[in-house]
Amino acid sequence: MNAIASVAQGFIGLFTAGGTTFTGWVTGIIPQVVCLLTFMNSIIKLVGEEKVEKFARKLTSIAILRYTLFPLIAMMFLGNPMAYSFGRFLDEKYKPSFYDSAVSFCHPITGLFPHANAGELFVFVGIAEGVKKVAGSYSDLAVRYFIVGLIVIGIRGIVTEKIYFRLAGIKK
């Protein structure tokens, strides 16, 4: 009988943990995303939707900029997870590759701009502590991590675009 009670308690514990996670979202990330969306939409309205769209179209017309500079701007100004909303300025066919680039840049940007992905700062800090013990400073690591991150997201974006186009039967 004790085993059945333990299994039942463990089973309900799963849902309790899920409820705790959901409560954390409702009181944490959801209001943040709503506020950031409101702020972003306000800025777009103030600047003018046509100007923002024109700037985004110009910036994203070149593949390497679409998958390096555009995700960089998105992550720097909006942070994770709000940065993905910049995909609204892209044609549907480019959204999967943009998302891949932006997601892949979450960690590399953290060393120089911790606000961009504060929830994952521990990854950079953990690596940096080891480097700091050996080199005395981790600012060089942060810069290198950032540069390599930009290179990697450019490659990932272009490769993902090619794969997606091929799978979706899209001609460039």
Automatic annotation (TrEMBL):
Pfam family, one: EII-GUT
Organism: Absicoccus porci
PANTHER family documented for this protein: PTS SYSTEM GLUCITOL/SORBITOL-SPECIFIC EIIC COMPONENT, PTS SYSTEM GLUCITOL_SORBITOL-SPECIFIC EIIC COMPONENT
Transmembrane segments: 59-79, 142-159
An annotated GO cellular component: membrane
GO biological process, any: phosphoenolpyruvate-dependent sugar phosphotransferase system
Protein name: PTS sorbitol transporter subunit IIC
Keywords from the UniProt entry: Membrane, Transmembrane, Transmembrane helix
